[in-house]
Amino acid sequence: MRIVQEQWTEVDGRPIIAYTFTNDNGMEVTCLNYGCIITKILAPDKYGNYENVVLAFNEFSPYLTNSPYFGAVIGRVAGRIREASFELNGKTYQLHKNENSNHLHGGQKGFHHVVWKAVEFSTKEAVGVQFSYTSPDGEEGYPGNVDVQVTYTLNNQNEFIISYHATSDKDTPITLTNHTYFNLSGNLKSDILHHRLKIKSNQFLELDHQFIPTGVLLNVENTPFDLREGKLLKEGIEANHPQIALVGQGYDHPFLLDSRHAEEIVLFEPESGRTLIIETDEPGVVVYTGNHFPSGMKVNGMPSRKYLGICLETQALPDAVHHPHFPSCILRAGEVYSSMTKYTFRVHQA
Q: What are 205's strand-pairing partners?
Protein backbone atom coordinates (compact mmCIF):
# COMPACT_ATOMS: atom_id res chain seq x y z
CA MET A 1 0.00 0.00 0.00
CA ARG A 2 1.38 3.41 -0.89
CA ILE A 3 0.32 7.00 -1.39
CA VAL A 4 2.06 9.82 -3.23
CA GLN A 5 1.14 13.45 -3.69
CA GLU A 6 1.88 15.95 -6.43
CA GLN A 7 1.01 19.63 -6.67
CA TRP A 8 -1.02 20.27 -9.80
CA THR A 9 -1.61 24.03 -9.60
CA GLU A 10 -2.79 26.78 -7.23
CA VAL A 11 -6.17 28.38 -6.58
CA ASP A 12 -6.17 31.74 -4.79
CA GLY A 13 -2.63 31.01 -3.65
CA ARG A 14 -3.55 27.63 -2.19
CA PRO A 15 -1.86 24.52 -3.61
CA ILE A 16 -4.04 21.98 -5.39
CA ILE A 17 -2.67 18.55 -4.57
CA ALA A 18 -3.30 15.29 -6.42
CA TYR A 19 -3.19 12.29 -4.09
CA THR A 20 -2.59 8.90 -5.71
CA PHE A 21 -2.98 5.80 -3.59
CA THR A 22 -2.35 2.25 -4.73
CA ASN A 23 -3.18 -1.08 -3.13
CA ASP A 24 -1.06 -4.24 -3.25
CA ASN A 25 -2.97 -5.50 -6.31
CA GLY A 26 -2.10 -2.46 -8.41
CA MET A 27 -5.49 -0.79 -8.24
CA GLU A 28 -5.06 2.98 -8.08
CA VAL A 29 -7.17 6.01 -7.12
CA THR A 30 -6.24 9.65 -7.73
CA CYS A 31 -8.12 12.53 -6.12
CA LEU A 32 -7.70 16.25 -5.53
CA ASN A 33 -8.04 18.42 -2.44
CA TYR A 34 -10.17 20.67 -4.69
CA GLY A 35 -13.76 19.44 -4.43
CA CYS A 36 -12.49 16.02 -3.30
CA ILE A 37 -12.55 15.34 -7.04
CA ILE A 38 -11.71 11.81 -8.18
CA THR A 39 -9.71 12.09 -11.40
CA LYS A 40 -8.67 8.48 -11.93
CA ILE A 41 -9.51 4.94 -10.87
CA LEU A 42 -7.33 2.26 -12.44
CA ALA A 43 -9.11 -1.10 -12.27
CA PRO A 44 -8.22 -4.44 -13.89
CA ASP A 45 -10.10 -6.06 -16.76
CA LYS A 46 -10.40 -9.82 -17.38
CA TYR A 47 -7.01 -9.81 -19.14
CA GLY A 48 -5.25 -8.11 -16.22
CA ASN A 49 -5.02 -4.70 -17.89
CA TYR A 50 -5.37 -1.73 -15.55
CA GLU A 51 -7.23 1.15 -17.17
CA ASN A 52 -9.02 4.31 -16.07
CA VAL A 53 -12.74 3.71 -15.49
CA VAL A 54 -13.88 7.25 -14.58
CA LEU A 55 -14.41 10.47 -16.53
CA ALA A 56 -12.15 13.41 -15.84
CA PHE A 57 -10.36 16.43 -17.32
CA ASN A 58 -6.70 16.17 -18.29
CA GLU A 59 -6.16 19.81 -17.27
CA PHE A 60 -7.19 21.58 -14.09
CA SER A 61 -8.82 24.73 -15.49
CA PRO A 62 -12.11 23.03 -16.57
CA TYR A 63 -12.66 22.02 -12.94
CA LEU A 64 -13.13 25.70 -12.06
CA THR A 65 -16.50 25.51 -13.81
CA ASN A 66 -16.97 21.70 -14.04
CA SER A 67 -20.54 21.78 -15.32
CA PRO A 68 -20.81 17.94 -15.27
CA TYR A 69 -19.47 17.87 -11.66
CA PHE A 70 -16.91 15.22 -12.64
CA GLY A 71 -15.72 13.21 -9.64
CA ALA A 72 -16.68 15.78 -7.03
CA VAL A 73 -18.28 15.64 -3.60
CA ILE A 74 -21.64 17.39 -3.71
CA GLY A 75 -23.07 19.40 -0.80
CA ARG A 76 -24.57 20.75 1.27
CA VAL A 77 -27.51 19.17 -0.55
CA ALA A 78 -27.16 16.96 -3.61
CA GLY A 79 -29.75 17.41 -6.34
CA ARG A 80 -32.23 20.17 -7.06
CA ILE A 81 -34.23 22.24 -4.57
CA ARG A 82 -37.33 23.77 -6.13
CA GLU A 83 -37.39 27.59 -6.24
CA ALA A 84 -34.09 27.60 -4.31
CA SER A 85 -35.87 27.90 -0.98
CA PHE A 86 -37.17 25.82 1.91
CA GLU A 87 -38.85 26.29 5.27
CA LEU A 88 -37.33 24.96 8.47
CA ASN A 89 -38.45 25.58 12.03
CA GLY A 90 -40.90 28.25 10.84
CA LYS A 91 -38.30 30.24 8.90
CA THR A 92 -37.89 30.44 5.12
CA TYR A 93 -34.36 30.19 3.75
CA GLN A 94 -33.46 31.53 0.31
CA LEU A 95 -30.64 29.67 -1.44
CA HIS A 96 -28.49 30.64 -4.39
CA LYS A 97 -30.25 30.12 -7.72
CA ASN A 98 -27.77 28.42 -10.03
CA GLU A 99 -30.10 26.53 -12.37
CA ASN A 100 -32.86 28.83 -13.62
CA SER A 101 -35.00 29.52 -10.54
CA ASN A 102 -33.77 26.44 -8.69
CA HIS A 103 -30.83 25.46 -6.51
CA LEU A 104 -28.62 22.62 -7.79
CA HIS A 105 -25.91 20.59 -6.07
CA GLY A 106 -25.15 23.02 -3.25
CA GLY A 107 -25.18 26.23 -5.29
CA GLN A 108 -22.69 28.38 -7.14
CA LYS A 109 -19.80 27.44 -4.92
CA GLY A 110 -20.90 24.21 -3.32
CA PHE A 111 -18.51 21.66 -1.87
CA HIS A 112 -17.24 20.86 -5.38
CA HIS A 113 -15.48 24.25 -5.54
CA VAL A 114 -13.91 24.11 -2.07
CA VAL A 115 -10.22 23.60 -1.34
CA TRP A 116 -10.42 20.98 1.43
CA LYS A 117 -7.92 20.29 4.16
CA ALA A 118 -6.43 16.85 3.48
CA VAL A 119 -4.66 14.33 5.68
CA GLU A 120 -3.34 11.14 4.13
CA PHE A 121 -3.12 7.82 5.96
CA SER A 122 -1.73 4.36 5.30
CA THR A 123 -2.01 1.04 7.13
CA LYS A 124 -1.13 -2.53 6.25
CA GLU A 125 -4.60 -3.14 4.81
CA ALA A 126 -5.80 0.28 3.62
CA VAL A 127 -4.66 3.63 2.30
CA GLY A 128 -6.42 6.90 1.65
CA VAL A 129 -7.12 10.54 2.44
CA GLN A 130 -9.42 12.28 4.92
CA PHE A 131 -10.75 15.63 3.72
CA SER A 132 -12.29 18.22 6.03
CA TYR A 133 -14.07 21.56 5.59
CA THR A 134 -16.13 23.92 7.71
CA SER A 135 -19.06 25.40 5.83
CA PRO A 136 -19.92 28.70 7.55
CA ASP A 137 -23.39 29.72 8.66
CA GLY A 138 -25.16 31.33 5.71
CA GLU A 139 -22.99 29.83 2.98
CA GLU A 140 -25.13 29.61 -0.17
CA GLY A 141 -28.06 30.53 2.09
CA TYR A 142 -27.95 27.48 4.38
CA PRO A 143 -28.18 27.80 8.18
CA GLY A 144 -25.54 26.58 10.61
CA ASN A 145 -21.80 26.15 10.80
CA VAL A 146 -21.26 22.65 9.45
CA ASP A 147 -18.08 20.62 10.00
CA VAL A 148 -17.69 18.02 7.27
CA GLN A 149 -15.27 15.12 6.86
CA VAL A 150 -15.06 12.97 3.74
CA THR A 151 -12.76 9.94 3.82
CA TYR A 152 -11.56 8.02 0.77
CA THR A 153 -10.20 4.55 1.56
CA LEU A 154 -8.78 1.89 -0.77
CA ASN A 155 -8.11 -1.62 0.55
CA ASN A 156 -6.61 -4.85 -0.77
CA GLN A 157 -10.05 -6.31 -1.56
CA ASN A 158 -10.29 -3.74 -4.39
CA GLU A 159 -12.90 -1.90 -2.37
CA PHE A 160 -13.00 1.88 -2.56
CA ILE A 161 -14.98 3.31 0.35
CA ILE A 162 -16.33 6.83 0.75
CA SER A 163 -17.36 7.80 4.29
CA TYR A 164 -19.17 11.05 5.10
CA HIS A 165 -19.44 12.67 8.52
CA ALA A 166 -20.94 16.04 9.47
CA THR A 167 -22.16 18.02 12.48
CA SER A 168 -23.93 21.38 12.68
CA ASP A 169 -24.66 23.97 15.35
CA LYS A 170 -28.09 24.67 13.78
CA ASP A 171 -30.71 22.48 12.16
CA THR A 172 -29.90 22.31 8.45
CA PRO A 173 -30.58 20.12 5.41
CA ILE A 174 -27.66 18.00 4.29
CA THR A 175 -27.20 15.10 1.91
CA LEU A 176 -23.77 14.39 0.49
CA THR A 177 -22.85 12.29 -2.50
CA ASN A 178 -20.02 11.73 -4.95
CA HIS A 179 -20.54 12.63 -8.60
CA THR A 180 -18.07 10.30 -10.32
CA TYR A 181 -19.02 9.09 -13.80
CA PHE A 182 -18.04 5.50 -14.57
CA ASN A 183 -17.20 3.87 -17.89
CA LEU A 184 -16.03 0.30 -17.32
CA SER A 185 -14.82 -0.22 -20.91
CA GLY A 186 -11.53 1.33 -19.76
CA ASN A 187 -9.90 4.49 -21.14
CA LEU A 188 -13.21 5.37 -22.84
CA LYS A 189 -12.90 2.68 -25.51
CA SER A 190 -16.67 2.78 -25.95
CA ASP A 191 -19.70 4.51 -24.51
CA ILE A 192 -21.92 3.08 -21.76
CA LEU A 193 -24.81 1.85 -23.92
CA HIS A 194 -23.73 -1.78 -23.62
CA HIS A 195 -23.15 -1.65 -19.87
CA ARG A 196 -25.65 -3.72 -17.91
CA LEU A 197 -27.14 -2.10 -14.81
CA LYS A 198 -28.93 -3.92 -12.00
CA ILE A 199 -30.63 -2.09 -9.13
CA LYS A 200 -32.65 -3.55 -6.29
CA SER A 201 -35.47 -1.05 -6.53
CA ASN A 202 -39.25 -1.33 -6.89
CA GLN A 203 -39.91 2.40 -7.18
CA PHE A 204 -38.50 5.49 -8.85
CA LEU A 205 -39.45 9.17 -8.65
CA GLU A 206 -41.49 10.90 -11.31
CA LEU A 207 -39.81 14.11 -12.54
CA ASP A 208 -41.36 17.30 -13.89
CA HIS A 209 -40.07 19.36 -16.84
CA GLN A 210 -37.39 20.92 -14.59
CA PHE A 211 -36.15 17.43 -13.62
CA ILE A 212 -37.41 17.94 -10.07
CA PRO A 213 -39.42 15.20 -8.31
CA THR A 214 -43.16 15.74 -8.35
CA GLY A 215 -43.46 13.71 -5.16
CA VAL A 216 -45.06 10.79 -6.97
CA LEU A 217 -43.47 7.36 -6.49
CA LEU A 218 -43.84 5.16 -9.58
CA ASN A 219 -43.65 1.39 -9.74
CA VAL A 220 -40.83 0.13 -11.97
CA GLU A 221 -42.82 -2.87 -13.24
CA ASN A 222 -43.25 -3.00 -17.04
CA THR A 223 -41.14 0.15 -17.52
CA PRO A 224 -37.53 0.84 -18.59
CA PHE A 225 -36.91 1.57 -14.91
CA ASP A 226 -37.27 -2.08 -13.95
CA LEU A 227 -33.61 -2.90 -13.39
CA ARG A 228 -34.19 -5.57 -10.77
CA GLU A 229 -32.91 -8.37 -13.04
CA GLY A 230 -30.44 -6.17 -14.89
CA LYS A 231 -30.87 -4.36 -18.19
CA LEU A 232 -28.63 -3.04 -20.95
CA LEU A 233 -28.56 0.74 -20.68
CA LYS A 234 -29.13 0.90 -24.43
CA GLU A 235 -32.40 -0.97 -24.00
CA GLY A 236 -33.68 1.46 -21.40
CA ILE A 237 -32.40 4.59 -23.11
CA GLU A 238 -34.02 3.68 -26.42
CA ALA A 239 -37.36 2.78 -24.82
CA ASN A 240 -40.47 4.74 -25.68
CA HIS A 241 -41.25 6.12 -22.24
CA PRO A 242 -42.19 9.74 -21.43
CA GLN A 243 -39.86 9.93 -18.40
CA ILE A 244 -36.93 8.70 -20.52
CA ALA A 245 -37.68 11.29 -23.24
CA LEU A 246 -38.21 14.07 -20.68
CA VAL A 247 -34.59 14.14 -19.50
CA GLY A 248 -32.90 13.99 -22.92
CA GLN A 249 -33.53 10.36 -23.83
CA GLY A 250 -31.88 8.59 -20.95
CA TYR A 251 -31.91 8.24 -17.19
CA ASP A 252 -31.65 11.11 -14.72
CA HIS A 253 -33.88 9.63 -12.06
CA PRO A 254 -33.85 8.80 -8.35
CA PHE A 255 -34.52 5.18 -7.41
CA LEU A 256 -35.56 4.06 -3.94
CA LEU A 257 -33.29 1.24 -2.83
CA ASP A 258 -34.92 -1.89 -1.39
CA SER A 259 -31.84 -3.06 0.52
CA ARG A 260 -28.70 -1.70 2.13
CA HIS A 261 -25.17 -3.08 1.83
CA ALA A 262 -26.40 -6.11 -0.12
CA GLU A 263 -25.06 -5.60 -3.65
CA GLU A 264 -28.00 -3.33 -4.38
CA ILE A 265 -26.36 -1.66 -7.41
CA VAL A 266 -24.31 -3.66 -9.95
CA LEU A 267 -22.80 -2.29 -13.17
CA PHE A 268 -21.23 -4.73 -15.66
CA GLU A 269 -19.35 -4.21 -18.93
CA PRO A 270 -19.04 -7.48 -20.93
CA GLU A 271 -16.04 -6.70 -23.17
CA SER A 272 -13.72 -5.86 -20.29
CA GLY A 273 -15.40 -8.18 -17.79
CA ARG A 274 -15.35 -5.39 -15.22
CA THR A 275 -18.06 -5.38 -12.59
CA LEU A 276 -18.71 -2.52 -10.18
CA ILE A 277 -20.76 -3.33 -7.08
CA ILE A 278 -22.08 -0.35 -5.11
CA GLU A 279 -23.40 -0.76 -1.58
CA THR A 280 -24.66 2.07 0.61
CA ASP A 281 -26.74 3.01 3.62
CA GLU A 282 -28.42 5.85 1.71
CA PRO A 283 -32.14 5.49 0.85
CA GLY A 284 -31.71 6.10 -2.87
CA VAL A 285 -29.53 6.44 -5.92
CA VAL A 286 -29.79 8.95 -8.75
CA VAL A 287 -28.90 7.34 -12.07
CA TYR A 288 -27.66 9.76 -14.75
CA THR A 289 -26.49 8.56 -18.16
CA GLY A 290 -24.80 11.73 -19.41
CA ASN A 291 -27.71 12.84 -21.59
CA HIS A 292 -26.68 16.51 -21.53
CA PHE A 293 -22.90 16.59 -21.74
CA PRO A 294 -21.77 20.04 -22.97
CA SER A 295 -20.41 20.05 -26.51
CA GLY A 296 -16.86 21.17 -27.17
CA MET A 297 -15.64 19.72 -23.89
CA LYS A 298 -12.66 17.36 -23.75
CA VAL A 299 -13.14 14.34 -21.48
CA ASN A 300 -9.98 12.32 -20.79
CA GLY A 301 -8.60 14.09 -23.86
CA MET A 302 -11.50 13.03 -26.09
CA PRO A 303 -14.43 15.09 -27.43
CA SER A 304 -17.46 14.84 -25.16
CA ARG A 305 -20.63 13.13 -26.33
CA LYS A 306 -23.82 11.71 -24.90
CA TYR A 307 -23.64 8.49 -22.91
CA LEU A 308 -19.90 8.67 -22.30
CA GLY A 309 -20.33 7.84 -18.62
CA ILE A 310 -22.88 6.89 -16.00
CA CYS A 311 -23.19 8.60 -12.63
CA LEU A 312 -24.60 6.59 -9.72
CA GLU A 313 -25.24 9.11 -6.95
CA THR A 314 -26.09 7.39 -3.66
CA GLN A 315 -27.96 9.94 -1.56
CA ALA A 316 -31.18 11.05 0.10
CA LEU A 317 -33.96 11.80 -2.36
CA PRO A 318 -33.71 15.13 -4.22
CA ASP A 319 -35.91 18.02 -3.06
CA ALA A 320 -36.75 16.11 0.12
CA VAL A 321 -37.19 19.46 1.91
CA HIS A 322 -40.49 19.85 0.02
CA HIS A 323 -41.82 16.30 0.37
CA PRO A 324 -42.58 15.19 3.93
CA HIS A 325 -43.19 11.59 2.78
CA PHE A 326 -39.56 11.33 1.58
CA PRO A 327 -36.89 10.29 4.10
CA SER A 328 -35.80 13.45 5.92
CA CYS A 329 -32.55 15.17 4.97
CA ILE A 330 -32.52 17.45 8.03
CA LEU A 331 -29.48 17.27 10.30
CA ARG A 332 -30.45 18.44 13.76
CA ALA A 333 -28.07 20.61 15.76
CA GLY A 334 -25.70 18.51 17.82
CA GLU A 335 -26.54 15.28 15.99
CA VAL A 336 -24.20 13.44 13.61
CA TYR A 337 -24.66 12.90 9.89
CA SER A 338 -22.94 9.68 8.91
CA SER A 339 -23.06 7.82 5.61
CA MET A 340 -20.95 5.29 3.74
CA THR A 341 -20.85 4.00 0.17
CA LYS A 342 -18.59 1.15 -0.93
CA TYR A 343 -17.46 0.55 -4.52
CA THR A 344 -16.13 -2.95 -5.13
CA PHE A 345 -14.35 -3.73 -8.40
CA ARG A 346 -14.43 -7.32 -9.62
CA VAL A 347 -13.71 -9.15 -12.85
CA HIS A 348 -16.03 -11.59 -14.61
CA GLN A 349 -13.98 -13.99 -16.71
CA ALA A 350 -16.70 -15.53 -18.89
A: 217
